[in-house]
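Sequence of F5/8 type C domain-containing protein (Rhizophagus irregularis).
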Amino acid sequence: MPDRDKNTLHININTGGVFEESPIRSYILRYFKGISQPRVLLLIAFIFLFVFFYGKNEESIGKNDIGKIETIQESDILTKIIPTEGDGECTAILLNWNRLDNIKIIVKNLCQYSMFKEIFIWNNNVDLHLSDTMFVDTHCNKIRYYNSPGNMYFIARYLACSMAATKYCYFQDDDWMIKHLRSMYSNFLRFPNLIHTDTNADVYSSTNWKWCFFDDDIDLHSCYSWVGTGAFTSRENVLKFLKMTSKTEMSSLEFIYGDMYFTTYLNQVPYQLENSLIELPQENGFSLTGKDRMLNKLYMHKALIRLYNYLSLLKSKNNNNPSTQMIEDTKEFSPTLYERDVRSPCHNDKCLFLTNKHSFPNVKLFKYKPYINISESERLHSSFFNTQHFISYPYSHAVDNDNSTAWISQDVIRKDDYIGLDLLLPMPVPLTFNLIIDHKSDYFNHLSIQISHDGSAWIQLSPSPKLDISSLSSTKNNLLSCKFRIRETGFRFLKLVSTRDWNFTFSIYDFAFDGVDNEVIDDTVNNILGNNDNDSGD
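Predicted 3D structure, token representation.
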């Protein structure tokens, strides 16, 4: 695809595709025969005017600096909408050991994303010398590689990031395919001081509960999170981490296991998103089970003890000689864990699911004690709270485009609880939303529908959009579908806020949106065809 001006909203409309996929096609095929010639001409004129003015309307929004739209063989103009904020400001870091075929697959996937200026491959395998010819079939011109003189293990990714020319870095291991990069990056750009990670429901239940370590007495507020299944970070944070390895006198063996220290050492809870992951062949890798898993826990524990001792020393010095810089170094960044509401990327990487409902108890219920190892800490957390409900009904099931799965909240809906979507960028056109739930229909009578440009300042829509509620009789749970149209443009965030308490939980089976106004199209066609029926009866 040729390079395009990233400050322009590009549109490419194929009128044939609009007709092929449009809801009006079935009406036309059904009624074409038997309609008098004047009515045929009227119908053809309508199709022409619909396509012509539809396209003209989209050309008018090309002046807005909000992204790229390419509509090819689609009636929904949002199909190819792509955020461009942060383009070229990130370097993707990959580590190679013994799975070069996986690396090539991942490179092909990453190369399509405009946020990556470069894909840096650090080769830890001294028996394999990377060369340009190895990557010809990836057709990617962003590749740079480094053949390390020795195996630097996991710390290599942080050294590679420190060498990057961009202010952000992206990490992932060579045994995963990550498909929700735009949505994760969009949220990262809102809060670039926080590491953003991506993982599945099982691991998420650990990284947001069992592997969180707090002690307000020394300003410890840290959770461990994997970076191998996708992570965005600032280069500044990586440099801070590398300095911390020196300040805490980390041993050389600990140093190479940098993954077990990075998210913990920064003493900030990573902003974690939950969704399903795609595995690539995983032979010849570092295992997360058995001996390797125990080794991970060992170094996770070592990292916490070093951080605990470092913060205790800072606290002691600050008590004797108060320092603004020390306070700045240990404060918890906003949004804190319980101020966050972004949960999961949508299945098509076009949005993020929002809710204020948390799935685990307050992590401060357990005060960190350095003499308790990770396995014992996990046991204590598990005996206090069982995470199986969340693993079975995670956030991602609300936006996975599958009506057979659901996110079911842990507790009942309270007043001001909400669900919502981050659409990744301000929307240039009116949108239709579809919410599928297993709730009482009265729930919809007590909603405040709100929109926002920045996710902070919210506007309640008044009058509220018309809600089209119907029963999905084909489903075993008697689900309800609620469709509504928001004609306002320029907003990025939407939330549906409950205005009263309920005695049931959120049960969200799907939450999606598109740019097609089927109601207007169908009403127009029905009017034309209805007039034809009346004429035929004269």
